[in-house]
Write a structure and sequence with these properties.
Among the domains are: 117-180, no CATH class; 347-486, no CATH class. α4 (85-114) packs antiparallel against α8, α4 packs parallel to α9 and α9 runs antiparallel to α10 (268-288). The longest helix is centred in the N-terminal third of the chain and has 37 residues, at 46-82. By secondary structure, the protein is mainly alpha-helical. The chain has helices at 2-9, 13-21, 46-82, 85-114, 117-130, 147-155, 166-175, 198-215, 239-262, 268-288, 296-308, 310-322, 345-353, 359-363, 367-374, 378-393, 415-419, 427-434, 441-452, 456-471, 474-483, 494-497.
Amino acid sequence: MATDVQAPRARPPLPERQPRVRQPAEDQPPKGQPTEARPAQGQPTEAQQAQGQQAKSRALLSAFYVTVLLATVTAALLPAVLFQPHSRIFLLKLAAVALFASMPGLLYVQFIRFKGPSLYDEFVINLFRLRIDRYCNLPAPPRHTSYYVQWLAEREKLHQPGTDNLYRRKFETVYGERAVSTRALFATRRPMRSEGFYPVVLATALLCIGWAIVVEPELYHNFNLLGSLPFSGQPELPYQALQFGFIGAYWFILQDLTRRYFRQDLKTAAYVSASVRMVVVTITVATVALVPLGSPAQLNVLAFFIGVFPQIGVQVLKSFLGKVIRGVPNLSAKFPLSDLDGLTVWDQARLLEEGIEDMHALATANLVDLLLGTRVSVNTLVDWVDQALLYLCVPGKPAQRPAGDELTASSELPVRGKLRMFGIRTATDLIRVWNCAGPNAPLVRKHISAVFGSDEESGQAAVEAILTAMEGNPNLVHVKAFREHDWTAGNPARSGDRP
């Protein structure tokens, strides 16, 4: 009997091992559930089951994509085998209209699936690098960066910290609340509305109309909508020129959307700009066709380039109208963006969407909105602003010097061109070189002064006045803060601050 009683007592280690393999309290089975229904030690947990379901979903999605791809290839090959030549051409035209018109919209649908919290982390880190505001007023940076400790220390000094933030709301209006990686740090509230899908639908509809006009798919049945009513033929439009103008506009739109897709800058505002471009090109080409320019082939080529660069059509009309009517306003900018290094026609069109038409608008723009709206690299954007600050203050024409002066330039380079001989191409370059303390600093200042004035004294006064004037621009503070950022290998925050 003693042996029979002691045998069950030899099993107490079993209850002691169970807490080690049990999940937290919220994962334990409810009271009263039979012991046999509890998960055994080798049974997969809920997290493993969820991972298995995700793997199955990915496999099904991959199989769906493969099926769609094979169906597309089959649908393209069957007409070539079964149909007559005229039917093949008809189907080819329909496929061209459907494919070319839907391609820009499909880019946006693909883009919104993959934009994520990495955009928000990069945006917030750049706000700290540029010192846009006090750290306590900026949104919470990612926890893995050194800025988080500094932000938390200053945040605790506030009397009422709060959970709302202006910079985060700006981001949410563009990308939505789900793209904010630190949304768990603030209280749940009504999410901000992001951009709608209607501009994409409108642009796709206009592209369908444009490609239908270009391709002109034939109809099998003679369907007459107007019946026997006479056709007035008004207004008389250059039909073929409009076709080439639309092709040029589509070429630019597709190139622009593709670049913005890879730059992670594809928003519905791009489709608003695309719709406006197609309408403007149509009106401009129809008006330019009234000007006697030569043969129809020349007009078609000009219409294509107007589709790419609508300003060409405005210049053609201005040159023709200037001979008849004087006082036509000048549409060219005094400080064009094209003079900046590294700024292409695609970047110029992108900045135009943000209201940046010349260097003055760029130098005085809100850097937070540019970072959020353009998605241009912060290094490139800061460099453009830095160049614009110098170009606005430095004259373009060379200064007058006495004859026989050894510093008189033999070439006709402007002042900015001569500053490049000293490696000065931005405002911070001029500040850094002028304030250098090297052994050749007096000689450097002497030559730089000679670039701005006829003598050393007047040139030095001009440089000092320019530096004082540039200090009044608030964006120079942010540019200098970014330029002075410690990127050296000895910086302990280097690996954490970079996105």
